Amino acid sequence: MNLSSTHQKFVIHFGEMGARWGMNRTVGQIYAVLFLSEDPLCADDLVNALGVSRSNVSMGLKELQAWQLVRLQHQPNDRREYFSTPSDMWEIVRTLVDQRKAREIDPTLTVLRELQLDGDFDSSSEYAQERIQSTTQMIELLTEWYDDMRLVDSQRLEKLLKMGAAAQKVLDFKDKVTGKGGKN
Amino acid sequence: MNLSSTHQKFVIHFGEMGARWGMNRTVGQIYAVLFLSEDPLCADDLVNALGVSRSNVSMGLKELQAWQLVRLQHQPNDRREYFSTPSDMWEIVRTLVDQRKAREIDPTLTVLRELQLDGDFDSSSEYAQERIQSTTQMIELLTEWYDDMRLVDSQRLEKLLKMGAAAQKVLDFKDKVTGKGGKN
DNA sequence: CTGTAGTTTCAGCAATTACTGAAATATACG
DNA sequence: CGTATATTTCAGTAATTGCTGAAACTACAG
């Protein structure tokens, strides 16, 4: 790696984290290099930066594309494929959450709904039924909330987040004034 | 597995998901069985339910304890250790998020802060510095928001979530009325 | 103590996942 | 076309992770 020490530490750390985030070391490192690079990079740049095989980079990039975390583009008069990461941090966060939701939450929601439709609930305990139902409801509540917040523009989102739990007080107050309003 | 078909499907699915959630199949399955069981279960109950080795169950339970997802308890006149999951769904969600935050976010925040302190930033590009800084800020914003929301009681939290993006409008309105208030 | 029931540890094996280099495929350009 | 360059696929291997049974440990009862 011919990168500065700061660069290196960052890349190595993202490699370690990549594993915990459902990718793998190389994929995490590729992402980190692209993330810190102002200009798009081609596969060979990544081979040089990371010292892994060309084919490994190819597979890694494919996976990052599946995650929609990198963008493919072309340079004029150059056949090679160049990759970059979005410059907008919110876009990156949204993609990450979307993807992990799609991989870690949505399949469960599908199964839970199936269980409640076709499940032979007679043979399963009352308690288990309740548990499955309240799990479904919890996931629905959280994902619906996220689908909703997803659409708020960055500036407002930032404001909302900074406000944090204080928002809750404003809304409590509003309830009192308007006489228990809200969607629920 | 001597469980109902609904039970079985649920357990098998959580096994598959366990892998994606940073545990592994057996750990996911153990959790699923405990989650659906009204009464606490001992290790041998889990061996019977899942058909895996006693030692595997032991290791799995150890990991679930590390995740703080199960509770150890004792029955009167029985030396065996019994395990259960909290009945409150919010408690479970909170634990899950806490744990994943601790494993997947906090270490990164630590590294990013280190990089900004001791990093030899001279040798690293301007752009990379900006990226590292805005990543730090983004993570700080999100984790501070979570730390804040964590403390809101379940009922209010549910209300807030159901309100979703609509909350934003109420707050926009409040801004206009009070003349740009809020923490920011 | 000694015996017994419960639990944990761990070495060895199994299964899965990650990585490589070589071969195959695709693409642009003369 | 043909050839040079870029990319992907894939079989084989390396590394990691998961699982088991046997042995070691623990705690309690007699």
Structure description:
The structure is a homodimer of 184-residue chains. Helices cover 68% and strands 5% of the residues of chain A. The first copy, chain A, is built from nine helices and three strands. A three-stranded antiparallel beta sheet of chain A has the order 1-3-2. In chain A, a hairpin with a 6-residue loop joins β2 and β3. The longest helix of chain A is centred in the last third of the chain and has 24 residues. The first copy, chain A, is extended, with a radius of gyration of 22 Å. In chain A, 26% of the residues are buried. The mean pLDDT of chain A is 90. At the A-B interface, α1, α5, α6, α7 and α8 of A face α1, α5, α6, α7 and α8 of B. The first copy, chain A, binds a DNA duplex (30 and 30 nucleotides) through α4.
Task: Compute the number of helices of chain A.
Answer: 9
Tell me the β content of chain A: 5-15%
| Share of residues in helices of chain A | 55-70%
Cα-to-Cα separation, first versus last residue of chain A: 55 Å
Helix-strand blueprint:
Two copies of one chain form a homodimer.
Chain A: H1 5-20, H2 25-36, E1 41-42, H3 43-50, H4 54-66, E2 71-74, E3 81-84, H5 89-104, H6 106-118, H7 126-149, H8 154-163, H9 166-178
Antiparallel strand pairs in A: 1-3, 2-3
Helix pairs in contact in A: 1-2, 2-4, 3-4, 6-7
Chain A binds a DNA duplex (30 and 30 nucleotides) through helix 4.
In short:
Two copies of one chain form a homodimer. With 184 residues, chain A is mainly α.
List keywords for this structure.
homodimer, 184 residues, mainly alpha, Arc Repressor Mutant, subunit A, 3-stranded antiparallel sheet, 3 strands, 68% helix
